[in-house]
What we know:
Layout (H helix, E strand, L loop, with lengths): L1 E4 L13 E2 L5 E3 L7 H9 L4 E4 L4 H8 L6 H14 L13 H26 L4
Antiparallel strand pairs: 1-4, 2-3
Helix pairs in contact: 3-4
Amino acid sequence: xxxxxxDKIEPGMVLAKPxxxxxxxxxxxxxxxxxxKELLILESWKIKEIDIExxxxxxxxxxxxxxQLGKDEIDKIEAEIDxxxxxxxxxxxxxxxxxxxxxxxxxxxxxxxxxxxLLEEKKHGIR
Length: 127
């Protein structure tokens, strides 16, 4: 399973984990085959990404910066960020608490900034 951005989800994909609203209400159960109707529901609740069956998170990670950074470089950045965010539960779908969701979003932003910074350093020959 892997987190996929909502705009990349297609009808027929199957949820690997339940989806909760920002208020903690269950929107869709695990195993639900998505239709256009469910995608509209998720969009209306401002859900940004969901776990989909059959998609590995490493595939998702490789797609994000494919050809720009090596897997080892991305893994190193993730390990560093994971260490800094070790007290935050790693799965926001199972922890619908708003504070946890906020911390998970911050973690994603930190990763993006670190990756972009490394790309800039490589571009200018710093690394």
